[in-house]
Give the backbone structure.
Amino acid sequence: MNIPLRWPRFLLLVSGVGGISQAGFGTLPEDPCSGLARGDTLRFTGVERSTSRAPMGDYRMWSDSAGRVSYAESWRIDTTTYRWDGQIRLDDRGWPRAYVARRFTNGRPNGLDSVYVAGDSAITVRNGQRTGQRLEPGVSPAPSFRASASLAVLSQCVLRQENRQLRMARLGLLTLRHIVTDTIRLNGSPREISLHLLTSDSIPELVRVWLDRGRLFAVAMSEGVMDLVREEWVSAVPQLLKAELSAAGRSETCAAGGGPGSCEDSEYVCKVTGPSGRGGTMTISDSGYSVRSDGLGPYASGTSNVNLVAGGTASMLLSRPRPGAPPRSFSIDLSHPVPGDLGVPLGTVLVNGVISGYQPSGALYRNEIGAQWYTEKDTVQHSVLEIPVGTTVETPQIAMDFYVDGVMHVLQVGPQPYGHCMAAGTAIYGSGTSRGTITRPLPNRWIVELPPGSIGRLFENRHGDPSAVNKGLYYISLRFVLQQ
């Protein structure tokens, strides 16, 4: 969908359409700091990090003849498509002075945010509501909606500021920190590249970008689902991932969160074989089990915050926050610790995909429930799609990620350590726990089960898998059916 954005003197929301009409706003100097020549366009491809598969989505950033910087990002998860686009207006110092950001889901507009400077104030228009905030001297307005694509544009603006810093309302002092410089080969020729982290004194990590001679060519983990890479750089993605590892763990530069510049060495050391598939429905059994559904029926992949996977190493439900959709949830009853061990009754924990607290380095940003299957020790894992139809196999791991009082926890069931494929290692083990089973009655159906009386081990994962803390054994049971 291509709906033109028009820069106004005064921003007026058009009800039901999400468009912008034009009225008087005064003249802004037009000297962009984005690293783009006027009329230039950069095109990026969305690459799925776990497989280096492209395209998962796309991203464009361009400057028009007046120097206005625009961006458009789109991607697909299961059957749901997303598009975010907008513009940033800059003054002759390279300071952002106005923004427009829009969101679409399956082609339908579901949000429009705008911010602009009027006199000594920043005017924000969101969901039809207009509010003002006085700007102190030397402070730039901040977008109310922070897409990683727009933050990538801001990264290059900050890069061209004195000391690579820019003070913004709400966000505080933005700083573009150099993480690592490395040399890779592109089409047979060596290229020196550098990884940078955009941070602020109020938010430790806003976005991570790769630069080639000062020009943006990759955005890491955009919207938490894909790496955005310039089209001509896609073949170099495996080298970029290795370069990220060279930066991991450096105490003087590493930051919270996973991926480039993080304190977690996140290379996979296991080999994964076999096909993978997404989609379908999952039905969680309630009666007699300690993991229960929300009572709203089967979980359909691509709806609300639900994503389902059958293949790769697991059959699982991934629960991610999704704008504009009430979240589906499930619950875990942790009221029954195993007597004589470390556990204490914690009651029932609601798992809905909402990030409710600090996200540690090396920990998953999503909530999940999943079961793995393999046949050849710990080094070669086979897809659940390779389980023979009509058979039942034991699974070496059933794991659940969730928050307890704002702190990430992992419930591990089975002998295979959670995070065992990570080069940094893991402290999450399954000693004293039960083994679950996966049954494949039909080619497109899997049943994962932990019968009542099974035991799992709970870990606090506040600082990532290698530093997880054992919180004891708990009685746990579940049954879910994944249908594709």
The longest strand covers residues 172-186. The chain has two domains: 12-247, 271-483. The CA atoms of residues 291 and 332 lie 5 Å apart. The helical segments are 148-159, 237-247.
